[in-house]
């Protein structure tokens, strides 16, 4: 029950075709999620000890950058693995070719093994991130920010899994993970060399495109697709949640999350723009201050030195006075 995927259902599509093994979800999945949560904790520790710690020793980062480097390193590995896995599922199941596949035949109570195991691993990973906040000794200033996105991942992925919206959830997760992978990879390169900032420009472009894609597919699914399907109503036994209240709640949750992400994105870009403008202003001030020292001051000092020598002030260089020269001449 802890290791293997539960709720296997054998389905025969045609008389000529072979039986297909499909899966449903149920309460026993909690045990499976808990087991793979422990696996995620072990993998997290291995990546930290054998990869990230060795890189930190070479880079000699500060405490703040050290914490962010570890966070980006762990998330970059997870996003890369999940993106490749999600793309393979979409290619095999042909999810992306026909948009109507997202809502046709709802409720989608049956899943292939790859889809169910993908969701089990996703929920387990984001749940394991909660105790990792203590194990990694994350700073108190960073805990609220990480708690926000961890809880959002858990709620959205679990909601798509329980409400039999795993097709839509998978299609939305893959481009989102690609954008997050690019961001954390760019941040890793930035910590190694602060001049490497080109990745953030590409990330900003893809971030906006991913938000528009998420909103478009969500509105199509909850606003136009599901209301026109044959199975309308609410039934826990059949796994049918195609009612107006649930549809609008899901759509509102997705739209509010995208709006919150765009708000954070705009604030981040404004902060970077202000820092860049301040750096440019400081660079312009430094040559200006160097040129304000006029060359007239140097001749003025020389003239003052000459005048003092003529008036009888003894110089430290030659230690002679006009009187001494005059007496010698006589």
Question: What is the topological layout?
Answer:
Elements: E1 8-11, E2 20-23, H1 29-59, H2 63-93, H3 113-135, H4 143-162, H5 166-192, H6 198-225, E3 233-235, E4 240-242, H7 244-291, H8 297-310, H9 322-329
Antiparallel strand pairs: 1-2, 3-4
Helix pairs in contact: 1-2, 1-3, 2-3, 2-5, 3-4, 4-5, 5-6, 6-7
Describe this structure in words.
This protein is mainly α and 330 residues long. It has nine helices and four strands; from the N terminus they run E-E-H-H-H-H-H-H-E-E-H-H-H. The strands form two sheets. Strands 1-2 form a two-stranded antiparallel sheet. A two-stranded antiparallel ribbon has the order 3-4. A hairpin with a 4-residue loop joins strand 3 and strand 4. The N and C termini lie far apart (120 Å).
State the gist of this model:
The protein has about 325 residues and is mainly α.
Strand fraction band?
A: under 5%
Tally of strands? 4
* Assembly category: single chain
What would the principal axes of the Cα set say about the shape?
A: globular
The helix/strand class is mainly alpha
What brief labels describe this structure?
globular, 4 strands, mainly alpha, disordered C terminus, two-stranded antiparallel ribbon, 330 residues, 4% strand
